[in-house]
């Protein structure tokens, strides 16, 4: 669980709801036509913007903003150094069945065991990284569509409300509901874009960058094992990607 994401979302929404309640309650801010225009309309336009598979899948991706599959780089470096020592001492076949932190690492390690040379290993794993980035970009594109389309639907709702209001100026009872649609659709659009999805998109993009760096470190470590580099040299190369405090901790170990 990413506590920062959870607290940020709850806190942001809480501040908004608190301001609404202090101004007289939530009732004035709930309008069914506005909800249909903005929430429903935006959802259908996102579906229009991306393939069905991406649309369905991006809901699961949203959960990763709160439950990210973050891998620990320091543990990976430690394990890579251990495996390099085993390979230098007993050969590549000794790496068969060794436990590693994740499937990407396991795939690369198995390639070494199966006799893949450095060039083949690096080419295959880099393809895996490129494929992962494309998947992430597609799903994040669907999330970004919410950011782009919700304010536009809010503006459309505002125009609808204004047209209804101006068309019924002679009926005072019709002005209020029309004005509510005009104002609340803008509010809902801004809420969806800026409170729900922009922070989520930023968090997901950060996790992708982290995952790319992690996998590139795995590729670097495995290619050095294929070259027969010493464990110390491998550690020095990988540790340079870690934060300063973590570097110090590993250097002292």
Describe, in plain words, how this protein is organized in 3D.
The structure is a single chain. The chain has 253 residues and is mostly helical. It has 2 domains: 1-30; 32-253, no CATH class. Helices cover 80% and strands 0% of the residues. It has 9 helices and no strands. The chain has helices at 3-22, 32-49, 52-63, 73-90, 103-113, 118-167, 172-227, 231-239, 244-252. Helix 5 (103-113) packs antiparallel against helix 6 (118-167). The longest helix is centred in the last third of the chain and has 56 residues, at 172-227. The two termini are 29 Å apart. The model has no long low-confidence stretch (mean pLDDT 91).
Describe the structure concisely for a colleague:
This protein has 253 residues and is mainly α.
Shape assignment: elongated
Radius of gyration: 26 Å
> What is the helix content?
over 70%
Question: What is the tally of helical segments?
Answer: 9
- Low-pLDDT parts are none
Structural class: mainly alpha
Helix-strand topology string: HHHHHHHHH
The profile of the biggest β sheet is: none
What is the residue-averaged pLDDT?
Answer: 91
* Number of domains as seen in the coordinates: 2
Classify the beta-strand content into a percent band: under 5%
Question: Got a strand count?
Answer: 0
The end-to-end span amounts to 29 Å
Based on the model shown, name its key terms.
mainly alpha, 2 domains
Could you give the topology of this structure?
Elements: H1 3-22, H2 32-49, H3 52-63, H4 73-90, H5 103-113, H6 118-167, H7 172-227, H8 231-239, H9 244-252
């Amino acid at each position: 669980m990413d506590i920062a994401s959870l607290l940020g979302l709850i806190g942001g929404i809480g501040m908004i709801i608190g301001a609404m309640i202090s101004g007289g309650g939530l009732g004035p801010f709930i309008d069914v036509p506005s909800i249909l225009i903005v929430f429903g309309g935006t959802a259908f336009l996102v579906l229009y913007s991306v393939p069905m598979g991406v649309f369905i899948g991006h809901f699961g991706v949203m959960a990763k903003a709160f439950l990210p599959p973050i891998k620990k780089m320091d543990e990976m470096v430690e394990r890579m150094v251990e495996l390099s020592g085993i390979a230098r001492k007993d050969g590549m076949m000794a790496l068969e069945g060794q436990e590693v932190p994740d499937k990407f690492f396991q795939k690369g390690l198995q390639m070494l065991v199966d006799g893949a040379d450095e060039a083949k290993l690096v080419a295959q794993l880099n393809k895996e990284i490129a494929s992962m980035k494309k998947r992430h970009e597609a799903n994040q594109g669907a999330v970004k569509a919410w950011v782009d389309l919700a304010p536009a639907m809010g503006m459309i709702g505002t125009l609808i409300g204004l047209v209804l209001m101006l068309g019924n100026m002679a009926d005072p009872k019709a002005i209020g509901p029309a004005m509510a649609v005009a104002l609340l659709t803008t509010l809902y659009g801004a809420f969806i874009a800026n409170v729900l999805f922009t922070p989520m998109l930023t968090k997901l993009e950060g996790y992708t960058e982290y995952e790319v760096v992690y996998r590139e470190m795995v590729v670097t470590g495995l290619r050095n094992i294929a070259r027969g580099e010493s464990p110390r040299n491998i550690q020095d190369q990988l540790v340079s990607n870690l934060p300063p405090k973590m570097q110090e901790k590993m250097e002292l170990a």
